[in-house]
Every structure is written in structure tokens, then in C-alpha cells.
Amino acid sequence: MDRTRKLIAEAFEDIADGIETGSFKKRLRIGLTIYGSEHGVEEMIKAAQLAKNKYGDFDVVLIGPDVNCGFETVEVQDAEEGHKKMIDLLDKRKIDGCVTQHFDFPIGVSTVGMLVAPGSGKNMVLSTTTGTMSTNRVEGMVKNSIAGIAAAKSVGIDNPSVGILNVDGARGTLRALKELQSKGYKINFAQSLRKNGEVLMRGNDLLSGTPDVMVCDSLTGNILIKIFSAYTTGGDYETLGYGYGPGIGENYDKLVNIVSRASGAPLICEALKYCAVCAENDVLKVAKSEFQRARNAGLEEILNRERPSESGEIKIPPKEVVTYAIPGIDILELDSACRALWKDGIYSESGMGCTGPVILVNSEKGSQAVEVLKKAGYK
């Protein structure tokens, strides 16, 4: 009864605010799954309370045990059920976005994080931090660039500067992006603070936050976001920045922001705000528009040069629900591992979780799929 009264009171407050300002803008509802943290359910509730006290311009909906803590709660029994309920709530538009941990995105979707550069205190978008846009390194980093631009625009940077971290594939990525730029896709390249002033960024640029968007592969980004989130605490408690960010893909339609199981309440509080800003400015719609502009400028033709040609046709088995994750496959072998399963009549998809690449198959065929992959030399 107390919770019902509280919700009614908040609704009347929103109406009063709307009358006063002349605007009846919808109040955003951001979900937070509270099972799965290494710091316990209490830490997640603390994060929700921090966000409410610090911002107060969106509502947090908890997904987890009913702990009677003053927040609307959707009750589930464990983390796995929490993810299923999260997707259901997003599909039914009962929440506008959700912050969660350890979620497996399909290939083609990767998360765009945001950190605080220690040398300047500047926010810098890190694209990307989990998931993967493609199993081809250069293709993935080119698409990461587009996703990073979309995320930056969604947090209010109209013409974000883009730098490419000098890792494997960086020069191929730069070559592809410059061609895309020459054909009409707008990219504002950053210049390194080092004397050579290249677009390719160094470690110094990470520390200073030189570009608005720092592009890298997701495995490197995952390491970086962990370091920048927890370098003041010894690593087991992440406090700084905004988390691993929203999963962005060309046609992905669910706003899911990732934090780590090591993330603490201060960081999760900011991740909730990041998610709310992304929801308010419809980051997924912005991303779709950015990818379309890139395609109009010849993205597919440019990327085709980076893709290895496949010889021989393998018939893909009928599509099935795939919920069984098989880890331990190298990211560069995901496509060929899927093909090995298709050849054996097992439908599979490649994916990327927070701990690395996975092959997804139907739960009833999990053991069979593992054996096929072992025989093929993948396990």
C-alpha cells in the first residue's frame, strides 16, 4: 500500500510539473538488474538510491528480489530470469532502457563505453568495450567508429572528434574511414597530442582524453574500461566513469547498458544516467541513421575488401532458439566454427559475452555441439 501511494504521489508531482512548465514530457523508466554483482544486491540498491538522489529526472525499476526498498521492483528468482524479464519489459516498452551485467549480444552489436580521462577530467567515449561488430578486425573497428559517433551525438556532442587507438588493424581502419569520408560520410578526425599529430592515438591520448571518441577493438576496450574504472581501488571495485555503455548495432532495437560484476555503486549510478540520456536522445535511432549515412557513402563496398572470401556453399540449418552458450572459441574462428556446426546439421549463431566470444546453439543440442567442435579442433 505504501508503495502504491508513493507511485501515485510521484504521478501527481509529474502532472504538477507539467502544468507549471507547460510540458508533459514522459518520465523515463530505466531498469536495473540487481542479481549477479560481486558486491551483492545491497550495492545495486545503493546505486539506484544514489542515482535518485543525484539526478531524480528518471525512475529506476529494479529487476530482482523483492527487497522492499522504496523502488518499483519486478521480482525474479536469479540473474538468468532477470535477463529474460529485462528483454520482456523492453519489448513491451515498460522500461526505456536497462543497466545489467554479463549479457550476451549477437555479433554485430557492441557496447560503447564512456570514461573520465584522468589527465583532463574530460569525458571520452570508448568504442567499443564488449561484444563485437564483426569477426573481421578492420570491419569491426570501422563499425565501432560509426557506433561511437552515434553515442557521442546522443550525449550532446554534435560533431565529435574521432581518434583511432594505435592497435592492430588501426591503419586499415583509418584507410577505410578516410575513403568513407571522401565519399561523403562526415568524420571529424582528431589529432594526437604528440608532436607527430597523427589521427592514430597513443597511450598519452587515452590519459588526456584527446578525442571525443576513441576507437579500438572491443577486447582492448574491455581491458581499458576496467583499468580506467578501477585504477584507484586496486581492481576489485570499479568506481569511475559511466560503465561499458549501450549495445549498439545497425539494427539493434533494445537499449541495454552494461556494467561489470565488479562495478560499484558510484559507477552504476553514472551508468544509469548514461542509459537515461541515451534513451532520451534515442541512441539506437541515431545509430541506425549514422549507419545508413555510411552505407549511402559506400560502406559495404569498402568493407568487402576486408572480408575473406569463402569457398564452397554450406546450407544453414533451420533457425532455432539459441540459448546455450559455448565459450572458448577464438574470435577469429567464430565464423568457421559456426560453419562446422551447420555442416553437421546444428543451427548456431556467434555471439559475444562480457568474458569473450561464444557460440550459441539450442539448449537441447549443447552437448552434441561441443563434441562436434572438439572433433573439428575448436575446443
How would you characterize this protein structure?
By secondary structure, the chain is of the alpha/beta class. It has 3 domains: 100 residues, Rossmann fold (3-Layer(aba) Sandwich), CATH 3.40.50; 165 residues, 3-Layer(aba) Sandwich (Rossmann fold); 52 residues, Hypothetical protein rpa1041 (Alpha-Beta Plaits), CATH 3.30.70. The strands form 2 sheets. Strands 1, 2, 3, 4, 6, 7, 8, 9, 10, 11, 12 and 13 form a 12-stranded mixed sheet that branches. Strand 8, helix 5 and strand 9 form a beta-alpha-beta unit. Helix 2 crosses helix 8 and helix 4 packs across helix 5. The chain is globular, with a radius of gyration of 21 Å. The N and C termini lie far apart (54 Å). The mean pLDDT is 91.
Low-confidence stretches: none
DSSP strand tally? 16
Helix content: 40-55%
Proportion of strand residues: 15-25%
Radius of gyration from the alpha-carbon trace, in angstroms: 21 Å
CATH class designation of the largest domain: Alpha Beta
Tell me, rounded to a whole number, the average pLDDT: 91
Count of the domains: 3
> How does the overall form come out from the CA principal axes?
globular
Distance between the termini: 54 Å
CATH topology of the largest domain: Rossmann fold
Number of helices: 12
Secondary-structure element order, as H and E?
A: HEHEEHEEEEHEHEEHEHEEHHHEHEEH
CATH architecture name of the largest domain: 3-Layer(aba) Sandwich
Major sheet: 12 strands, mixed
Structural class by sheet pairing and helices: alpha/beta
